[in-house]
Amino acid sequence: MLTIKVLGSGCANCKRVEQIAQKVVAEMGFQAEIVKVTDYKDIMAYNVLSTPGLVINEKLVCAGRIPTPAEVTTWLSDAAMQEA
Question: 2-83: which CATH number, 3.30.300.20, 1.10.10.410, 3.40.50.300, 3.40.30.10?
Answer without folding.
Answer: 3.40.30.10
